Amino acid sequence: MEKTLDHIGVAVRQLDETINFYENILGATMIDRYRSEAPGVESEIAIMDIHGDRTELLCPTNNTTSPIARFIKQKGKGVHHIAYRVDDLEDALQELKDEGIRVMEDTRRTNKHGRRLIYLNPADTEGTIIEYCDYPNDQE
């Protein structure tokens, strides 16, 4: 199955300062900014676009339970994950299973933009957090 880069997720401590950098230095446009208090997310997210390439800025809203807070504590701010878009998430998950690649089932969800997503187990990806996602309601 073909995969294309969907976005890069970046863990940040100061969302407003980072948005300012992306807009004023990198020339990005903010597509959306929202807060998710869903268990396993607990972050404020800003979606930045630079000529069609997307970066999601992820700032923890709960320093105790947010996975972004844990990531920053363990590894510091910076690239958190790389997301690859697939044609059909269920088919892609079957391919992973056939190859013996595990996913983190507790991360499966649909975000406010209709993107279905799940994270692959970093133990099977040489330590990189990889997201697979699709947009089943997208008419592209």
TrEMBL record:
InterPro entries given in the database record: Glyas_Bleomycin-R_OHBP_Dase (IPR029068), MeMalonyl-CoA_epimerase (IPR017515), MMCE/EMCE_epimerase (IPR051785), VOC_core (IPR037523)
Family, according to the entry, reads as follows: Belongs to the methylmalonyl-CoA epimerase family.
* Pfam entry (one): Glyoxalase_4
Give yes or no: UniProt keyword 4Fe-4S.
Answer: no
Indicate yes or no for the key word Cytoplasm.
no
Residues annotated as domain VOC: 4-135
Concerning PROSITE patterns, the annotation shows: VOC (PS51819)
What SUPFAM superfamilies would the database entry show?
Glyoxalase/Bleomycin resistance protein/Dihydroxybiphenyl dioxygenase
Question: What's this protein's name?
Answer: VOC family protein
Q: Write down the species.
A: Halobacillus campisalis
Query: Which sequence ranges form a coiled-coil region, renumbered to this chain?
Result: 79-106
Cross-referenced PANTHER family = METHYLMALONYL-COA EPIMERASE, METHYLMALONYL-COA EPIMERASE, MITOCHONDRIAL
CDD domains given in the database record: MMCE
Give UniProt keywords alphabetically. Coiled coil, Metal-binding
Q: What's the superkingdom here? A: Bacteria
